[in-house]
Structure formats: structure tokens, C-alpha cells
Design a protein that fits this description.
This protein is mainly α. The chain is about 55% helix and about 0% strand. The N terminus is likely disordered.
Length: about 160
């Protein structure tokens, strides 16, 4: 059987088409920029920034509503402001690194607020009937969201380095 070039393949000058070494053998072809010494065009700084923004968008889409509800129940207004800043972020072309620095600042503040949530935290506002399942383990929800926030923040720091 002949070697097949995967759709994520690219050509480096003077080399035949081959899969990027950062994703060879991977089920999910995700470049992480310079991984395993790859110098392909796909692993440029812009691609690394793009991955960080994609991870942020996925985080905000999947965790954003729950995060907003937990922060509201705990009445952590500063963290809500940081979440809103992330959700309304507008990135100007060519200023991705500046925007990522802002993202890191907001995520870091958000993480600090989530880490400060005490065990057995109680809601600080009246609880809606739909929030009762969340309130049972409010501290666990806050700490889970903190772990997810830390994961995204780590990716942003990698993109900035």
C-alpha cells in the first residue's frame, strides 16, 4: 500500500509532501506551533494565535452560560465583568498578540476569583428553581470552571511565548 498524504499535508521547500510532524499519527490534526521541531507554514505564529482564539471561543461557548450563572449566584461582579469582556472581545487584524494579552489578563482575574470560592459556598442571591441542581454543588461547579479556565489560560500563555 502506498503512503497516502493526509489532507493536513503540506510541502516544505526541497521536501516531498508529508504530514506535519506535529500531527503525524494523530487522530486530531491540531498544530501546536513548533511541536517536534516542525517549521512548516502551518505552524506560524498566526496559526498559534488562531488556535488560542479557537480554544477561547469553544470555552466561552461550552462553559460561558454555566460560568455566568455560577458567578451570578456567587455575586462575583468583577469576574462577571471579566467574562463579559471576553465575550465581547473584538480582535483587529494584526493585533492578535495584543488581544491575547488582554485575554490572558481577563482569564487570570477570572481564575483568581474562581479559585477564591470557598468549599461549601452558598448562593448570595435568591435561587431560581432551575438553578437548584447547580446550587447543590456550587463550589464544585466553580472549581471545575476554574480548571477549564486554567486550561484555556495555559494555551493563551503558550501562544504568547
Amino acid at each position: 500500500m502506498r503512503n497516502r498524504v493526509v489532507p493536513d499535508a503540506h510541502v516544505q521547500p526541497g521536501h516531498p509532501a508529508r504530514p506535519c510532524s506535529a500531527t503525524a499519527g494523530s487522530i486530531i490534526a491540531l498544530h501546536v506551533g513548533g511541536a517536534m521541531g516542525c517549521t512548516c507554514p502551518s505552524c506560524t505564529r498566526a496559526q498559534v494565535h488562531s488556535i488560542a482564539f479557537a480554544r477561547l471561543a469553544a470555552y466561552l461557548e461550552t462553559e460561558g452560560p454555566t460560568l455566568a450563572r455560577v458567578l451570578t449566584l456567587l455575586d462575583i461582579r468583577g469576574a462577571l465583568a471579566n467574562l463579559e469582556a471576553l465575550q465581547t472581545l473584538h480582535v483587529e487584524p494584526g493585533l492578535e498578540a495584543v488581544a491575547l494579552s488582554d485575554v490572558a489578563r481577563h482569564l487570570d482575574r477570572l481564575l483568581g476569583d474562581l479559585a477564591a470560592v470557598p468549599f461549601r459556598a452558598k448562593p448570595q442571591i435568591p435561587v431560581e428553581p432551575t438553578d437548584r441542581p447547580l446550587v447543590r454543588d456550587l463550589d464544585a461547579a466553580a472549581h471545575w470552571l476554574g480548571a477549564r479556565t486554567q486550561d484555556v489560560l495555559s494555551g493563551v500563555h503558550r501562544a504568547l511565548s
